[in-house]
Amino acid sequence: MYPQLLHIYGPVWINSYGVMIAIGFFIFAFLILRHPLRKKIISQKTFIDLLLCGLLAGIVGGRLL
Questions:
Q1: Could you give the CA distance from residue 51 to residue 5 in angstroms, rounded to a whole number?
Q2: pLDDT at residue 1 above 80?
Q3: Torsion angles phi and psi, residue 7, rounded to 5
Q4: Which pLDDT score, from 0 to 100, does residue 6 have?
């Protein structure tokens, strides 16, 4: 796998690691939002709020570590 997928301009690159994490996150969110049990447990708006808070906490925690 190439570590850098796309060079945008100057020192700006799109890394393959970040793209794979984003793809995994969106597939997870899509599949969970369509799951029938999720509708009984938690509403869609609350789930999206928790998903965004978890994403933000994961990014901040990863950078701090």
A1: 27
A2: no
A3: -100, 120
A4: 86
CA distances from 32 to 2, 29, 37, 43, 50 (A): 30, 5, 9, 12, 12
Q: What is the 3-state secondary structure (H, E, C) of the chain?
A: CCCEEEEEECCEEEEHHHHHHHHHHHHHHHHHHHCHHHHHHCCHHHHHHHHHHHHHHHHHHHHHC
Task: Give the whole-angstrom CA distance, residue 52 versus residue 28.
Answer: 13
CB-based contact 15:5 (threshold 8 Å): yes
Closest to 15 measured CA to CA, from 27, 7, 23: 7
